[in-house]
Amino acid sequence: MRSPRALIADDERLMREQLRGRLAAAWPELLVVAEARNGAEALTLFEQERPELAFLDIRMPAPNGLEVARKIAGRCHVVFVTAYEAHAVEAFERGAVDYLLKPVDPDRLAVTITRLKQHMQAPPDLDRLASILAKIRLEDSTAASRLRWIQVTIGNQLRIIPVDEILFFQATDKYTRVVVQGGEALIRKPLKELLDELDPEQFWQIHRSTIINVRAVASVSRDIAGRLHVSIKGHNERLEISRGYAHLFKSL
After folding, report:
1. Quick one: 92 and 187 in the same domain?
2. Does residue 22 sit in the same domain as residue 132?
């Protein structure tokens, strides 16, 4: 029997690398024959390689992972990869497809591999996959799609930082600073994109270049010129609040 072959589709390079590495460690016989950065690439590579397995990021650029799954349904066993736990996890648990949460946990991956080996003894179940996909909506709810973690690179290491641990974000010339207790990192994600994905009740923009975690605020003060500044718990940097956002602190 030939080795099983897989396609990985995710717009985040580090996530593709992490999944490929963990698959290699947990399932050495599996061959990852293609990696796609978006849905269009995934469909092209699928037709070229015809893998038996596809690991699809739900929220990758168009077409998204759900749409790709619909197009390859019945021709491939599908595993969804998602950062959002609310995406129909119960439907995945009951169905012929499986799911993995980002960042991929090795123990959870082992469960998925066991299930895949069982599923691969039979052809992909088109009707069952179609039934599951019909129940899934990418727009489940606003809360469901909130950003839960940030991936950063420090040296040669990938770190996954829960957003609750982030003190503030600050835009620089080409990057965005991600500041946590005891350190910081740079990411390429623009502040505007972060603002769209963060929980607005927890993260407030206070300046065109700054977003703060309100749970990390120690105090807000006004200087002799009347400008407002935020002090962050356990951090010695004071962050300016621009006039356009002063209304957030109107009680001062």
Report:
1. no
2. yes
Nearest to 12 by CA among 149, 180, 192: 149
pLDDT single digits (tens) 180-190:
988 888 888 88
Is the pLDDT reported for residue 10 higher than 90? yes
**pLDDT per residue over 100-133, tens digit each?**
887 788 998 999 999 899 888 888 876 767 666 6
One-letter amino acid at 90 equals E
Q: Are residues 58 and 102 in the same domain?
A: yes
123: tokens are 């052809």
Q: Where are the alpha helices (DSSP H) in the chain?
A: 13-26, 39-49, 65-72, 89-94, 106-119, 126-135, 191-197
Where is the domain boundary, 139, 173, 204?
Answer: 139
> Where residue 16 sits, what CATH number does that domain have?
3.40.50.2300
Which structural domain range is residue 109 located in? Answer: 5-139
Strand partners, 228: 222, 241
With bands split at pLDDT 50, 70 and 90, how would you rate the model's confidence at 89? low
Segment 85-102 mean pLDDT:
60
CA angle 82, 107, 145 (to 5 degrees): 20
Q: What is the mean pLDDT of the chain?
A: 84
The residue among 76, 110, 139 that closes a domain is 139
Question: If you average pLDDT over residues 165-179, what whole number do you get?
Answer: 91
CA-nearest of 189, 112, 113, 89 to 149 is: 189
* Cα of 15 vs its chain's centroid, Å: 9
The CA-based angle 201-10-180, given to 5 degrees, is 40
Query: Residue 162 maps to which CATH number?
Result: 2.40.50.1020
